Structure formats: structure tokens, C-alpha cells
């Protein structure tokens, strides 16, 4: 540890985050593009001008990488708007170290921090169309041990694996945060490692040049190649295999060479090579090849001098990559792009670079992308000189030197065996293994691209924008990642449940299973109702907020839930999620102009809301209906938090190196700075810890987390075991006494925090019954709740005030609950009709210290029993079924007459996904049957009529059943002539059918068709519920589904006594049937078809006491059921008409 501290003291340049890609097309006219100091506003202005008349919505346009950069660096500028330099970040780091070394009285009062990593270390894909975990810039295999692999992340440093990528360990956590774009390892001594620092593709981190370790990464040292400016980048670094003291490094200045292991470096060839490549001629370390942005260079004296060779190469290029092959040492390939970032072609030299020929045909292996300045990769097989690979959005392969290409994978098909996520940054053969680094992680192919294996598991390199944590449990959270969508955490597992750039997120405080997540611009909200185990539904941005080149709100559109679970989003106006759609909340623009940047809700009063635009703080006291500006801050506001129990106290932070932490004690009218102890770096987020009279505060910065409270005079570092990393968000869970930090490069971390124990406090744990999962098949419910004594005194009585759909009930429980003890309490039963209900429960005790942990809420369903052999025609209100969406108690299934289109139902009532038009996108909705007892039936069967028009293989419908009151559901049946028309799964389809369950209807059958399926496997079940599931994806919608005449049928088991003697003969018959009832008197006979329709009335039935005759000569041949009622009891017999 002392050695590490000594190294850090020697490091002269902080490796924070910085520069932009100066070669991007919008920077070509910027006078500051190549200067040492850059104004962020200058770059943004050039960017906006470039995109003014261009379409940024196309995948690979290059629009998103820049906005990621701007968002990351906007809070890391000085008062003049210039990006802070490495030296300024280094000074801030030294200030932090000095604060920790100062054994002041503050530190004696500082609570202990102990940060632990939460991940993601690995994840499962539960709904993402582009599943991934974190960006990888570079892969390097130890030349002396193929099982030792290194990867470099843009903001997560260098990682090492000793088992070919099965497990990973970080090597640079004790450094200030670095990115890595180049790695070289001494073949004679694996403890000697060189890294080219920074992020040469997107500038997520500064480059300070080349670092070196001689002890396998335990400590690092600077070399003679050190950068101090904000506009330097380093990429490829290559070691001479015959002389490990000789290395070449590709930088924005040119090709540097060292002859003494990095002590000194010489610029051998000027030019911008940071995104180019350096390669050695196979078998000849004196012949060095290099490509800059637009030139090819060759050296025959180990890099002492270089010559430019251009015969046959394009006159102008935007970026070049190069590779060589051991299969033919004279072959060199170059992949070249246009100045606008599109594919220009593959060029080959067969004579060591003297002449070049365009080999590529008409294939655009960039898939139309124009962002090759961000993602571009190229590799040549080492055993076949004609086998080449390109990467941009996807990986392509050619076996004829580029004349033709075959696309190996698709970024939106994560179930493909060849999947590697979008945005390919690195391709390289090491021996016969092809390694790929992408925005999703590191992948390897051992069969020339036939399949790729994800090797990212174990590398905690995710770049999080935001994180949300459940109010009930710190083990439930959801966050938004750079280009890896929304990652949900529950059950100690991470699940990637949607794709794109995951942004702001929220968890319903009344339902810890209900997760929300935005993507960029708030253009879509993705919802999971089961803690991320699946993607349940989605909601597009409000139509009023979108238009040409306008996808909604800001890059990070704010999202927040209040105490009751109401969800709000900030676009140019404030919106509330109502019934699965955004509803305008405010009257008039809340901030005057521009998009809302931050939204906050008062934890102790949902009516108080705050929104921020720039430096303006605007307040509402009526839940967002109207706003008034109450304060103008001394800089742009970067975060806001309201005191947990005092509505008058508000905290904000402001932007830039001179930004402050500010506090208001009068509801936001005025603020006072309390910034002592904070270094001159970006202050990203501030949070207040409740249930503590000392008012603890935590502040996330570009250098970790700081802490202060009412007993301290200044802020102090709160970062034990936390890597030196930019903290983008903080959340506190009081129930588990944890603080959670989201970082941009090192994933999620958490630390224990101290909570004061009050004398008297009741904590409401949960409503155990009824459950939002179960469907009750009864007309009454007995609520059961769990509470905990969070105080030190014994509790002897608890008052409950609970409502069911706004009807209020009260109950006082008496008994004994000792400190820290949990008690389950039954409340009086409530009788209700069939329907969907919301129950809210509030528990209180005398002298209750905290009110923020007293309540709970749940939705629940009451069903009733269905009658077998009776068709539900949906014609009357009594025929209505329970229906709901997975993410809402309001569903899309509607009972009525379907009008218009091919699915029109005429005059009959049906259930339809939309009675007048198309169904919505990204929706999962359920139509739930009544509860059925099948144990009294012989040969039970389900049947209904259905017509459907669905996007083929993308949208679908199917039937599920439950035998445990809805706790779990199984798909009913398989593909068959009278049932499903598809058996596809995501695994079998490859590029579509992501929602497919392996048995479903999809495509179109507009005719109302009878479908039926045997329930013989369920014939012993006494309580079975069925539901018709409709599931649509995020794009393209059709007419939907129409359902009618739902029936559960079968032959009733014979009753006891004389009903056993009832006989029908002859059977089968051509039409005349005799019925003998023995000594019973027949009261009624009704004949049904297999669908439950009455096909014969009493006028054709002759009864004579216990004997009757049925004439069915006029009906079609088939199977029918005869219901015979005698002596007020009934039985059903099956007959066959010939």
C-alpha cells in the first residue's frame, strides 16, 4: 500500500476525464479543435451547426457518442467554460489526499465508510435487444501465456484474467480513474506491462500518455511519454518482440519510439495516429507499418524513419485501420472511411505497401453507419491471407480479400451465436482466436466467426448515468448504462431488461417490483413489473415533445416517483404517467423555455415539487400544476434534494470547478454555500439521509463521495475502498442502512451507513395478503400485514387505517412487539365483488418518530367461479372478465362491438385489444377467465373463437393457466391444427420473435375461428384460471386480437343415486335417441354442441315422466352433449350423431 501511495505522489498528471474527438466531422471547421484548451460551448456550437440539417436518428450516425461526451464533461469545466486540465484534476486529487491525511476533529466525527462492489459482474438478458455490460477498447493476450488476457476499458482501467477470460481482476483501482486504449506486455517478463492511457474512441477519459508497471500492476509509474494537455490521445502501443526495450506508441502527435523501456521517447513520425494502427511485418521487426488518419507509412529501420506510400490508396480518408498476416508477410490490408465516417473500402498490398488495390465490392460493412470515428475495427486471419474481418455496428467476414462480405451478426439479435453487441471497437487475432471489443464487452471466437463467446463476466466496467433503489430493500435497484440499456438488480442478479442508452430510472416506492427506465431523450420509458425479470411494457415520449430531429427531452430526461407511486417526467413541460400514457401536468411552461433538466419531489409532501432549467429553480406547491421561480443560482444547478422530513430545507449543487453545495432553510427562496472541504471538481449529486438528527449529507463528485453533517465544519472524503472514479448518482436505503453509488466506469458500489434508533417507531414492512401476484377466487379478503418495531421501546398497540378503492376501514391491534421484532397482523375481512382493487394501509403508534416508513400499498384481484359447459358470450355486463396490463391495473382488452377493419365483429360483443383500431406497441396485457373446477369433468376442454392480425413473429398471443391462484403461470399447449400456429422461440428464430414463448399465435387470421385444446392434464385440478396473453414489441402495430364465446366444457361426472341409471340409446345414432331415467322424473333436456351452444330446444324433445325421445335428424354429424335435469339434479351425457 505504501508503494501505491508513493506512486500516486509521483504522478504528475491526473487521469480524470477529458478531451473530445477532434477529428469528428463537426470539428473540422472549429478553430479550437487542435488547441490545447477547448471551450465546451465552442464544440457544442460546431456540433449543433453540423447536425442542423442532418438526420441523427439513424443507427450509427455519430450523434449519440458526442452527446455522451458532452453530458460527461459539461460539469467538468472552469468558469470560462474550458475543460479542466489534467493538472487541475491532479491538484484536486492532491487536495483530497491532504484532507484524508489531516487528522482533524472532523475526521474523528466522520462515520466509517466501507464501499463494496455490487456489479454488474455478469448479467442475464431479460428483454434487451442489444444486451451488454460495458465498453471494451482493447484486448491483449500475453505472448508468453495464452491464458493470460488483458482488456482496457474507456473509463474502467486495465483488467487481467489468468484463465482465458473466465474471471477478471482490476489492476488500476489505486490510480486516479483512467481509460486504456493500448496494452503491451514484455514476452520475457509478464510483470512488465505498458498501457496507453485515455479513451481514443470517445474521450471518456484523459490520456496522460504511457504508464508502465514492473510488478504486474501492483504499482504503476509514468514514462517519458507524458501528456499534460486536454487534447492529447494515445492508442496503439507495440513492443519489438526481439527487443522488449523498444516500443512504438501511436498518438495525436505522431509515432513515438522508445529504446530504453519507456524512459525517453522520440517523435519519429508526425501526424495523428491515435486512432490508427502500428504493425510489424511478420518475421521482420525492423519493418514497421503505421496508418494515421489518412496516410500509410513504412519504416525499414525499426521506426527510425518512415516513408509515406500512397499508390492506389484514396486521396482523402476520414480514418484508416490496418492489419497484416503471418500467412503471407507481404500482405497488408487497410480499411478506409470517408471524411463523413462512411465506409470507403478495403485496400490490399501484396508487396509490402508499395502498391495498393481496392478489393472490396459493393458491401457496406458499416451497415450505413457514419460514426467510424467512434467505432471501427479490422482484423486479418493469421492462417488465411484472404480472410478478413471488419467491425462497425456489426462484424462482417470476407474469404476473398474483401471482394464479398458476409455479415456475421446483428447488434439487435442478442440470441445469435455470433452476437457481439453494437459498436465494434476492436478486432484482432491472437493465434487462431479472434477477439472482439465492443460497447457491450469482450467476446472471443475460436471458429473463425461461426460463434462468439461473451467473456465479459467478472469485469465491473459499466458506465452508469443514473441509479434508483427500492425504498423497501437495497437489494433491488435499476440503473441506466451507456449503450447497454437498463440493468435491473434483484435476487443478487443483474438483468438487462431493455437496450439503447439507459438513462434516468425509478422504482415505485409502494411496489418494489415495479421498475421504470428511460432511454436517451426520454424517447421511450420501459417498464418491468417483476424487478427486471422481463420487459413488461413501454411508453413513448409525449407527442407534443417530439418532432423532426427532436426525440423528446434532454439527453438525460429526468424521471421521479413520489411517495404514492405517481411517476413524473421532465420534458419542456412536466408530465405524469396516467393509464400507460404521459399526461401534461403543468399549465404553461414551468421554466419559461427549454427542457427541464432536474425534477425533485418533497419526501414529506408530494404537493411540493421542484424543476430546474440552467440556474433557475422553480417550485410548485400543487403537485406540479403551476410553478414559480424561487431562486437563481450562481451557476447551473447539477442536483437537488429536499430534506427528508423538513420541507423548508433544500440542497443544491452547481456546475463546474467553482461549483458549490448550497442550502436553503426557507423553501428555496434563498441559499447559503457550505462548500468548505470540497475540491475544485464537478459536484454531480447531493443526497440527504433521513432518520438522523445530525442530518447527514453525501455528495458525489468526479473524485468519489464526500460527507458532512450538522456536527462538522466542512466536507470530508467518504470513500474507503471506493475506486477513484466519477460518481454520477447516489441513493440511500434507510431500511437496510445502505448508500449506493453509481459510477461512470466502475459500476455500482454500496457502503453501510449509520442510522439512529429512536425510542418509538413502527415500520410497515408489507401487505402479505392480498397479493398483487395472486388472483383470489372468492368474494372476501382478509388482509394480513407485517410490521416491525424499529424503536427501542416495546409496542403494545398499533392503529391501522386502510382503504380499499377509497373506502376507509380502521382497526386497532393490541399485543406485544419487542424492539427489532416483526409481527404479522390480520385485519378484519372485507367482502367485495369481482374486480381489481387497490389497498393502502397506514400503521401508527403513539409517539411515532418517523412517518416515512408507516405505509404500504398493493393492487389485488378478486375473481369468481365459472360454470362449466356454459359459454361466456360477453354480451352482458355480468360476462365481463378481469383484464389488466403487466405494468398497470388498466389493460387494453375491451368488451364491446369491434368496428372497422378485417376484425369487425358485427353486432356481437367481443373482447378486443382495441375495438376501433390498432393495438399499442410494447404492451403485455392479460384477459383473465373465471376460476374453474375441472375435477368433476371427464374429457375437459377449453375453446373460444378468435380472429387476429399481428405483426408476424414479433407480436403474438397465447394462453396461460395457473393452478395456484395466479402465483405462477404456464403456457397452455403446443402448436397444433386446432391451437397455436407457431412454435418459434428467440433461440430458434435468431433475429426476430424475441417475445415468443415457443407456443403462440402470430401473423394474421382475420376469420373468427374456433380454437380448442384438451385439458385432460388438468382434470384433477379443483381451481384453474386461464388467461389470454397479448404481447407486442416496440415497433409496428396491427389490428390486434378479437376473442368471443369462451367455454370450458366436458362431461360431468354422474351424480349419485338414480342419476346413474339414466341411459341414452342408441348411441351413436342417425338422429333418434331414447332417454330412460329409471325411477327419476325428467324435468328438462338441453342439447349443446361442443362449443356450448344450445342447438335443440324443448319443442323437439318429448318427455313422458322418466322416458323421453330426442330427434336430431336435422343436425350435422358430430359430437354433442345432452344435459338432463331430473329431480332437481343434472348430469351431462355425450352422444354421437352419425
From TrEMBL:
Give the highest taxon in the source lineage: Bacteria
Pfam families listed in its UniProt record:
Por_Secre_tail (PF18962)
Which InterPro entries did the record assign?
Secre_tail, WD40/YVTN_repeat-like_dom_sf, Xyloglucanase_GH74
Give the molecular function GO annotations: hydrolase activity
- Report the leader peptide range: 1-18
Q: Which GO terms describe its biological process?
A: xyloglucan metabolic process
The protein's UniProt keywords, in alphabetical order, are:
Hydrolase, Signal
What are the residue boundaries of the Secretion system C-terminal sorting domain, all occurrences included? 1064-1136
Protein name per UniProt: Glycosyl hydrolase
Provide the species name.
Flavobacterium aquatile LMG 4008 = ATCC 11947
Amino acid at each position: 500500500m505504501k508503494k501505491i501511495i508513493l506512486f500516486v505522489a509521483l504522478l504528475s498528471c491526473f487521469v480524470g476525464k477529458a478531451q473530445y474527438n477532434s477529428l469528428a466531422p463537426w470539428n473540422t471547421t472549429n478553430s479550437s479543435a487542435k488547441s490545447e484548451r477547448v471551450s465546451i460551448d465552442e464544440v457544442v456550437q460546431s456540433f449543433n451547426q453540423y447536425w442542423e440539417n442532418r438526420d441523427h436518428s439513424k443507427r450509427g450516425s455519430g450523434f449519440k457518442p458526442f452527446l455522451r461526451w458532452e453530458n460527461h464533461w459539461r460539469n467538468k469545466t472552469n468558469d470560462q467554460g474550458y475543460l479542466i486540465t489534467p493538472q487541475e484534476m491532479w491538484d484536486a486529487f492532491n487536495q483530497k489526499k491532504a484532507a484524508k491525511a489531516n487528522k482533524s476533529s472532523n475526521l474523528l466525527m466522520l462515520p466509517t465508510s466501507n464501499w463494496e462492489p455490487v456489479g454488474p459482474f455478469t448479467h442475464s438478458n431479460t428483454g434487451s435487444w442489444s444486451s451488454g455490460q460495458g465498453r471494451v477498447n482493447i484486448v491483449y493476450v500475453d505472448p508468453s501465456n495464452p491464458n493470460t488476457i488483458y482488456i482496457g476499458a474507456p473509463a474502467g482501467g486495465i483488467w487481467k484474467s489468468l484463465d482465458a477470460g473466465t474471471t477478471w481482476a482490476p489492476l488500476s483501482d489505486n490510480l486516479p480513474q483512467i481509460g486504456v486504449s493500448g496494452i503491451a506486455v514484455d514476452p520475457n517478463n509478464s510483470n512488465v506491462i505498458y498501457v496507453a492511457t485515455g479513451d481514443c474512441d470517445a474521450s471518456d477519459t484523459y490520456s496522460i500518455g504511457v504508464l508502465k508497471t514492473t510488478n504486474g500492476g501492483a504499482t504503476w509509474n509514468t514514462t517519458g511519454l507524458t501528456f499534460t494537455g486536454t487534447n492529447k490521445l494515445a492508442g496503439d502501443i507495440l513492443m519489438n518482440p526481439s527487443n522488449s526495450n523498444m516500443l512504438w506508441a501511436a498518438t495525436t502527435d505522431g509515432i513515438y519510439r522508445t529504446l530504453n523501456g519507456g524512459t525517453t521517447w522520440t517523435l519519429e513520425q508526425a501526424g495523428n495516429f491515435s486512432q490508427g494502427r502500428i504493425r510489424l511485418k511478420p518475421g521482420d521487426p525492423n519493418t514497421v507499418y503505421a496508418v494515421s488518419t489518412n496516410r500509410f507509412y513504412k519504416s525499414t529501420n525499426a521506426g527510425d524513419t518512415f516513408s509515406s506510400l500512397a499508390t492506389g490508396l484514396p486521396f482523402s480518408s476520414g480514418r484508416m485501420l490496418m492489419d497484416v498476416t503471418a500467412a503471407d508477410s507481404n500482405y497488408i490490408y487497410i480499411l478506409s472511411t470517408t471524411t463523413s465516417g462512411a465506409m470507403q473500402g478495403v485496400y490490399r498490398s501484396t508487396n509490402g505497401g508499395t502498391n495498393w488495390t481496392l478489393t472490396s465490392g459493393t458491401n457496406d460493412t458499416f451497415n450505413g453507419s457514419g460514426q467510424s470515428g467512434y467505432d471501427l475495427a479490422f482484423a486479418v486471419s493469421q492462417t488465411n491471407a484472404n480472410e478478413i474481418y471488419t467491425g462497425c455496428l456489426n462484424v462482417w467476414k470476407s474469404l476473398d480479400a474483401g471482394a464479398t462480405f458476409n455479415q456475421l451478426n446483428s447488434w439487435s439479435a442478442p440470441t445469435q451465436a455470433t452476437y457481439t453487441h453494437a459498436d465494434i471497437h476492436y478486432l484482432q487475432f491472437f493465434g487462431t482466436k479472434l477477439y472482439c471489443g465492443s460497447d457491450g464487452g469482450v467476446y472471443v471466437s475460436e471458429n473463425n466467426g461461426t460463434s462468439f463467446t461473451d467473456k465479459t463476466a467478472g469485469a465491473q466496467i459499466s458506465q452508469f448515468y443514473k441509479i434508483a433503489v427500492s425504498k423497501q430493500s437495497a437489494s433491488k435497484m435499476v440503473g441506466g448504462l451507456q449503450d447497454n440499456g437498463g440493468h435491473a438488480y434483484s435476487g443478487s442478479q443483474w438483468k438487462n431488461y431493455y437496450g439503447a442508452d439507459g438513462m434516468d430510472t425509478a422504482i415505485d416506492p409502494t411496489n418494489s417490483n415495479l421498475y421504470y427506465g428511460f432511454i436517451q431523450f426520454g424517447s421511450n420509458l420501459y417498464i418491468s413489473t417483476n424487478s427486471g425479470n422481463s420487459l413488461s411494457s413501454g411508453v413513448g415520449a409525449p407527442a407534443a415533445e417530439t418532432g423532426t430531429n427532436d426525440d423528446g427531452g434532454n439527453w438525460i430526461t429526468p424521471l421521479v416517483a413520489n411517495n404514492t407511486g405517481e411517476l413524473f417526467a421532465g420534458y419542456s413541460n412536466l408530465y405524469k404517467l396516467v393509464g400507460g400514457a404521459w399526461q401534461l401536468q403543468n399549465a404553461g411552461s414551468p421554466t419559461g423555455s427549454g427542457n427541464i433538466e432536474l425534477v425533485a419531489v418533497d419526501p414529506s409532501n408530494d404537493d411540493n415539487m421542484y424543476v430546474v432549467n440552467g440556474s433557475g429553480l422553480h417550485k410548485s406547491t400543487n403537485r406540479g400544476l403551476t410553478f414559480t421561480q424561487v431562486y437563481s443560482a450562481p451557476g447551473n444547478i447539477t442536483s437537488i434534494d429536499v430534506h427528508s422530513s423538513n420541507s423548508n430545507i433544500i440542497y443544491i449543487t452547481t456546475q463546474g470547478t467553482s461549483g458549490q453545495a448550497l442550502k436553503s432553510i426557507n423553501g428555496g427562496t434563498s441559499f447559503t454555500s457550505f462548500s468548505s472541504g470540497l475540491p475544485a471538481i464537478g459536484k454531480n449529486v447531493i443526497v440527504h439521509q433521513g432518520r438522523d438528527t445530525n442530518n447527514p449529507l453525501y455528495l458525489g463528485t468526479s473524485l468519489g463521495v464526500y460527507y458532512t453533517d450538522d456536527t462538522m465544519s466542512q466536507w470530508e472524503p467518504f470513500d474507503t475502498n471506493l475506486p477513484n472514479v466519477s460518481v454520477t448518482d447516489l441513493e440511500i436505503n434507510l431500511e437496510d442502512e445502505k448508500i449506493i453509488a453509481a459510477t461512470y466506469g466502475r459500476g455500482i458500489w454500496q457502503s453501510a451507513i449509520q442510522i439512529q434508533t429512536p425510542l418509538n417507531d413502527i415500520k410497515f414492512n408489507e401487505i402479505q395478503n392480498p397479493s398483487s401476484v395472486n388472483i383470489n377466487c372468492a368474494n372476501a379478503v382478509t388482509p394480513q400485514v407485517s410490521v416491525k418495531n424499529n424503536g427501542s421501546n416495546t409496542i403494545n398497540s398499533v392503529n391501522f387505517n386502510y382503504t380499499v378503492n377509497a373506502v376507509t376501514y380502521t382497526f386497532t391491534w393490541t399485543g406485544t412487539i419487542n424492539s427489532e421484532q416483526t409481527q404479522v397482523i390480520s385485519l378484519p375481512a372485507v367482502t367485495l365483488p369481482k374486480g381489481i382493487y387497490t389497498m393502502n394501509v397506514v400503521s401508527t403508534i403513539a409517539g411515532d418518530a418517523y412517518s416515512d416508513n408507516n405505509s404500504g400499498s398493493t393492487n389485488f384481484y378478486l375473481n369468481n367461479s365459472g360454470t362449466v359447459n356454459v359459454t361466456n358470450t360477453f354480451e352482458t355486463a355480468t360476462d365481463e372478465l378481469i383484464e389488466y396490463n403487466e405494468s398497470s391495473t388498466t389493460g387494453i382488452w375491451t368488451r364491446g362491438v369491434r368496428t372497422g377493419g378485417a376484425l369487425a365483429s358485427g353486432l356481437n360483443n367481443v373482447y378486443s385489444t382495441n375495438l376501433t383500431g390498432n393495438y399499442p406497441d410494447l404492451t403485455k396485457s392479460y384477459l383473465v377467465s373465471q376460476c374453474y373446477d375441472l375435477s368433476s369433468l371427464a374429457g375437459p376442454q377449453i375453446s373460444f373463437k378468435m380472429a387476429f392480425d399481428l405483426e408476424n413473429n414479433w407480436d403474438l398471443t397465447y394462453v396461460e393457466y395457473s393452478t395456484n391462484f395466479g402465483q405462477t403461470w404456464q403456457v397452455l399447449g403446443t402448436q397444433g391444427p386446432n391451437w397455436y400456429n407457431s412454435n418459434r422461440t428467440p433461440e430458434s428464430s435468431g433475429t426476430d420473435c424475441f417475445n415468443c414463448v415457443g407456443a403462440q399465435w402470430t401473423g394474421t387470421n382475420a376469420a373468427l375461428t374456433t380454437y380448442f385444446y384438451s385439458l385432460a392434464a388438468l382434470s384433477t385440478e379443483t381451481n384453474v384460471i386461464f388467461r389470454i396473453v397479448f404481447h407486442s414489441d416496440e415497433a409496428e402495430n396491427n389490428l390486434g386480437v378479437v376473442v368471443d364465446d369462451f367455454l370450458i366444457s366436458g362431461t360431468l361426472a354422474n351424480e349419485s343415486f338414480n342419476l346413474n341409471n339414466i341411459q341414452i340409446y342408441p348411441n351413436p345414432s342417425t338422429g333418434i335417441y331414447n332417454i330412460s331415467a329409471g325411477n327419476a322424473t325428467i324435468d328438462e333436456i338441453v342439447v349443446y354442441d361442443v362449443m356450448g351452444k344450445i342447438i335443440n330446444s324443448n319443442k323437439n324433445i318429448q318427455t313422458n315422466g322418466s322416458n323421453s325421445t330426442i330427434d336430431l335428424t336435422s343436425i350435422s354429424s358430430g359430437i354433442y352433449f345432452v344435459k338432463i335435469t331430473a329431480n332437481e339434479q343434472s348430469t351431462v351425457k355425450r352422444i354421437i350423431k352419425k
